[in-house]
Specification:
heterodimer, A: 102 residues, mainly alpha, 4 helices, 75% helix, B: 257 residues, 2 domains, 14 helices, 76% helix, 0% strand
């Protein structure tokens, strides 16, 4: 599958689940287990993605570099209840800074 | 649509009319000032998050996507975490189908936002296909934070439309600007993706169940990264969610006995 194929599959899939939520009768997906699994699934995916994109190097190697400092600084910003854009900016600026110094 | 809106307005204006001494000006006052407050909050969220589309545009360009592919993602997928996940997996050399699967699984949570929004907003059937594209973390959270249907509708629409326009505009600028920036890693922009994920994740970590799931997912995601093909470890890490629920369910049963 090409990059365009991946884009098409993601676009159609993501749109259909959005529409599904708005369209199904209330209660259809409200089984407690389904609801809890759906709430927990993004937690698992976001945690894994955060870790991988912070520590993932070439060819699946694990590395600690400037990104770890940047994402660590973003975590501190989150604890201090900084707005979304500030959190992302802190990560970018600290990563660039550490890289420039190193 | 106008008929329903009218009904909502009537519902809303009835209660303030009860205290006689408040007078007409006050009766009409609260909804207007409420509306302004909702619009202000919605614009705040929409502008702040919308601007981070710049980081997405740069990241996508850095991952090797061309301008049309980058803009198509923001226009058609329009759910930030899935977009970052897809380009991240493609950049890491993942199989496109595996990359799309990871992005899709992240998008499933929008169905559950939609479910809660459908009873709150009561959108007419004809509006739903358009409103659906705007069902994302931010528009849902702003709408769900409101006290009545009118405010929820305003919050959802203003947040969704502002974010859609800005996110797509900044994606375009980001993708165009990436070429001018040269080595995007030197600017620290490779940290934008994980920072976005972390910012979305942080408010979800409320109880031990969420924290245990996140911890297990990190271990699986990192531990399997050197062993499995790119894009696959994150899908395996998703199994942390049912695993934690299963263990917790067992413990709950034992406790009941």
């Amino acid at each position: 599958m090409s990059v365009w194929g991946a884009i098409a599959v993601t676009a159609v899939g993501c749109y259909l689940v959005k529409l599904l939520g708005l369209s199904v009768p209330a209660g259809a997906l409200e089984r407690p287990l389904v609801r809890r699994l759906a709430a927990l699934l993004p937690v698992a995916l976001l945690a894994a993605l955060t870790a991988q994109q912070t520590f993932g190097g070439d060819g699946g190697a694990l590395v600690v570099d400037a990104r770890a400092a940047g994402v660590g600084a973003a975590a501190v910003a989150l604890v201090l209840r900084a707005p979304f854009l500030v959190v992302v900016a802190v990560a970018v600026v600290v990563t660039a800074g550490v890289r420039a110094l190193g | 649509m106008p008929e329903r809106t009218q009904t909502t307005r009537t519902d809303r204006e009835t209660p303030p009319a009860v205290p006689a001494e408040t007078g007409t000006a006050v009766v009409e006052g609260p909804p207007a000032s409420d509306d302004r407050a909702v619009v202000r909050d919605a614009l705040g969220v929409g502008v702040a998050v919308g601007l981070s589309g710049f980081a997405f545009g740069v990241t996508a360009a850095g991952a090797g996507l061309d301008l049309a592919q980058t803009c198509a993602l923001s226009l058609l997928v329009f759910t930030g975490a899935s977009q970052f996940a897809l380009v991240g997996a493609l950049a890491a050399g993942g199989n496109p189908l595996t990359a799309a699967a990871g992005a899709f699984f992240l998008g499933i949570r929008n169905a559950f936002y939609g479910l809660r929004l459908s009873t709150l907003l009561r959108l007419p059937r004809a509006v739903r296909p358009f409103a659906a594209q705007l069902v994302i973390d931010e528009s849902s959270l702003v709408a769900l934070a409101q006290r009545d249907r009118r405010s929820a509708r305003i919050g959802f629409t203003v947040t969704g439309v502002t974010l859609y326009l800005l996110w797509n505009l900044t994606t375009l600028f980001g993708a165009l600007g990436a070429a001018a920036l040269g080595d995007t890693d030197a600017w620290g922009l490779d940290a934008a993706g994980p920072a976005v994920f972390l910012a979305l994740l942080a408010p979800m970590l409320r109880t031990t169940v969420e924290r245990a799931t996140a911890g297990l997912a990190v271990l699986l995601g990192l531990g399997l990264l050197p062993v499995l093909p790119a894009g696959v470890p994150v899908l395996v890490a998703a199994l942390a969610a049912p695993s934690v629920l299963l263990v917790r369910g067992r413990r709950g049963e034992e406790g009941a006995r």
